[in-house]
Amino acid sequence: TETILKVDNLHTYFKTEHGKVPSVNGVSFEVKEGETLAIVGESGSGKSVTSLSIMGLIEAPGKVEKGSILFEKTDLTKIDKKAYRKLRGNEIAMIFQEPLTSLNPLFTIGNQLSEAIKLHQKVDKRVARVKGIEMLKHVGIPRAEKVFDSYPHVLSGGMRQRVMIAMALSCNPKLLIADEPTTALDVTIQAQILELMKKLSTENNTAILLITHDLGVVAEMADKVVVMYAGQVVEHTDVFTLFSNPKHPYTKGLLDSTPKFHEAEEELSSIRGTVPTPATMPVGCKFHPRCPFATEQCIVQEPVLEEISDDHQVRCWLYAEKEAVVS
Ligand code: SF4
Ligand code: MG
């Protein structure tokens, strides 16, 4: 299978009163066609900034400083805004947490959907309408003709998210980036939307980059998982290994603080302490103030991400070669 997205050593910085601070600090991963990779972490871990960097949506004072983002053969860090706009909503589709903000309130669903279809499938208005209604039915919207002629505000959150998925898929993207796509929805609707995304990714071989704080969603959707903390990858493996054999103390904490899957309420919070801010970024291991296993070494020396077995990388001294060089 083909690699659709390859992020290599991505650094995204923001200019603040503390100088340039990294929100994403050397992140690497890849997503193959038909595969779902989840990036998981608390708010402030850098997961959303990672997705925004990939989509070319980082605005000043933020900046992608270093690294490459290969989408197929194109390095997205090297293309201009216009080229980016062409890729987005064409080969790369996006779904966000609150679909109301992504839909234009002044136009009907059908208007927006058929615009997308006309643009991407090069068909006339009449065909776009037929196809649009078909898409709405395909994403499980009842009375699709009526919804087609409705304005976004009359729909429920779940229906709007279905519309967004229909819009995203009307361009048959190679990559779908979904940032907390179901966080605002109730549990039943959430399950239906995830099921729908899964079905569509299987049918169209779409690669999905899924940003979430919810390990229930990860278990449901992901093939591979990247766990982020303070802008870095702390664990990276397949979903089965992550749940059966988690290694990083942060990952273990996340798993412990998920009482029951499918009950996404608050951000994960039962790990003591909070994600450090730029002003409080610790030296050594960035997780050490919250880590129950921290040693003297952890306080002064930062661990690197190391391969501890096939396709399993961990950033923690507990699993590292002890004679590491001082950074
Ligand atoms: Fe904890 Fe040390 Fe591992 Fe960091 S390196 S996660 S402080 S044990
Ligand atoms: Mg976010």
From TrEMBL:
Its main location: membrane. Keywords: ATP-binding, Cell membrane, Membrane, Nucleotide-binding, Transport. Transmembrane segments: none annotated. One of its GO terms (molecular function) is ATP binding. It is a peripheral membrane protein. The keyword Membrane applies. InterPro entries: AAA+_ATPase, ABC_Ni/Peptide_Import, ABC_transporter-like_ATP-bd, ABC_transporter-like_CS, Oligopep_ABC_C, P-loop_NTPase. Residues 5-255 form the ABC transporter domain. It is found in: Cell membrane. NCBIfam families: oligo_HPY. Belongs to the ABC transporter superfamily. This is ABC transporter ATP-binding protein.
